[in-house]
């Protein structure tokens, strides 16, 4: 059963102590009871330091070890307030706003926390898109002169897949790639779209006949309609993405961190119909105890780019 606060007042009442926060993380990390990270045995007892001592191997396990919260120097009560702030706002939060709301001592702390939590916005083993899916590429960056068609010098290239849901949009997936090649498309599809799905693309040969999928190419130059009319879902998603990047983040992001901003946009978009902000809080905390730690040194390291 999903257990989460419905309002900010309830959040502050339920999670006013470290013990309450740790109890909540324990229930999310080990919903069927404690499991020793070292020997996988289930018998343990709590210690005065807030750890769990395995009865079999005597290993002292922390509920935060191996999670986004590992080695945090600030209380979990502040973390929970940060997660609520991020999920309660429809369009998210930027580092400066988070620093001000929480009274954090430095911008760097707020920026790091946001990037840690963005890594938790991708659920391990998440379901791929299925059914009828539109697929196209887009470019993010300032206008460039002296380039033709799909050529680019400094812009960042991403693939966008949007699942059809009746006349509307279902779930989406996005991924940054180094170049628009068949191999880059293949790698993206393997992670994002269920084999056997129907792929609707434009007539670009790079998208042609992907193995394991039903391909429906739409050749724009032979149609009276525009590309945005023939592939309306993916173009609407791209428009919303660019508006979000400029509105919430003021366009101030580097391409080396773009993957995680795409993850955040996808997390929010795929849960846009949720009636409860508390449920988004629940999902993010749940995923934060399911993904590995993200030390600052790894956050600032450039991530790999798909299709290289």
Structure description:
By secondary structure, the chain is an alpha/beta fold. The protein has a domain at 132-243: Ribonuclease H-like superfamily/Ribonuclease H (Nucleotidyltransferase, domain 5, 2-Layer Sandwich), CATH 3.30.420. It is built from 11 helices and 8 strands. Strands 6-5-4-7-8 form a 5-stranded mixed β-sheet, with helices on both faces. Strand 5 (156-165) and strand 6 (168-177) form a beta hairpin. Helix 3 (76-88) packs across helix 10 (277-288) and helix 4 crosses helix 5 (107-119). The model has no long low-confidence stretch (mean pLDDT 88).
CATH architecture label name of the domain at 132-243: 2-Layer Sandwich
Mean pLDDT: 88
The percentage helix is 25-40%
Q: Strand content of the residues, in percent?
A: 15-25%
The dominant shape is globular
| Count of alpha/pi helices | 11
Q: By helix and strand content, what is the structural category?
A: alpha/beta
Relevant CATH superfamily of the domain at 132-243: Ribonuclease H-like superfamily/Ribonuclease H
Cα(first) to Cα(last) distance is 42 Å
CATH topology of the domain at 132-243: Nucleotidyltransferase, domain 5
| Rg over C-alpha atoms, rounded to the nearest angstrom | 22 Å
Oligomer: single chain
Give, in order, the helices and strands.
HHEEEHHHEEEHEEHHHHH
How many DSSP E strands?
A: 8
Q: Uncertain regions: pLDDT < 50 for 5+ in a row?
A: none
**Biggest sheet statistics:** 5 strands, mixed
Q: Which class of the domain at 132-243 in CATH terms?
A: Alpha Beta
> Which strands sit side by side, in order, in the main sheet?
6-5-4-7-8
